[in-house]
Amino acid sequence: MTIIRRKIIAAVLSLLVVSFASTVSAQRLNKLIELMENDQPAFGVLSFDYSLNNARSMATSGLDFVFIDMEHAPFDVERLREFLLGMTNKRSILEKGSLQPDVVPFVRIPAAGGAEELIAQAKQVLDIGVFGIFFPAVHTREQAELAIKATRYPQYNGAPDFEPAGLRGRNPSNAVWYWGINDYHAKADVWPLDPEGELLAMMFIESAEGVENIDEIISVPGLGAIFIGPSDLSTSMGYASPAAPQVEEAIQRVLRACLDNDVPCAITTGPSSVQQRIEEGFSFVTVGADGGLNSGAASALRLGREAAGRD
What we know:
- The radius of gyration is 20 Å and the shape is globular.
- The protein is of the alpha/beta class and 311 residues long.
- The protein has a single domain, classed as TIM Barrel, CATH 3.20.20.
- The longest helix has 24 residues, at 3-26.
- Helix 3 packs across helix 4 (77-87), helix 6 (115-128) runs parallel beside helix 7 (141-151) and helix 14 (274-280) runs parallel beside helix 15 (295-308).
- The protein is built from 15 helices and 8 strands.
- Strand 7 (265-268), helix 14 and strand 8 form a beta-alpha-beta unit.
């Protein structure tokens, strides 16, 4: 091989590396935030299965996110680490030229309300590398404020978004590796408070008290989204079924508050309800639970994408 040919090959490889790096830096890591910014509904599933096989199934499912429920399944950080490893799709990274996961992992932690336990659990799952947290049973503005603080690092002096002051301790070695970036501290902040942030702090509204306080809750700086839990909400309101008209009225009250304040709102769905919820204005929905993309979830995903114009 001549010196000239070597130089040409080296120059081409250098351009490819620069192009790949440019693509990676230009695209968001958090696919759900990207979809929200572009007003495109997102679709996911609720998972209690931490197995490697399920992780691989999720990674190639065609969904946008997976909601890992550690509230009703064991709070097992080591299994979570293995699950995220299983969701790492190297072939997709190579083909897309992007570090953005096709299916973004989030976790619902079990702690609700109690400060020390909530902060500790949030820190552990974030340090593993998830892209955000669903906080269960948020009833008041104070609980939402604590959740935001638990998700954030303390900001540097002079930062325009210094408040609300972060409480997250700094040792994100696994998250840095999983995200594949060097500037994790800069990107690991809550969106939309930090427009460049890649973390979502999302609050579950699943009680009559939460519905009553929704206007105060959604005004908390750093809140990324609201997720309505129909089953717990109906129980809190004293009804056996989420189909009760009074429960639907409460759901619509929360949705209206979110739409009026440009806050993304989510809810659980299935094949019979996903189109309705997308047309009503829900920003993202779950279409099923566990077992990969079963026939019901696949049907709901297809119908939802059709309603959203993403088919």
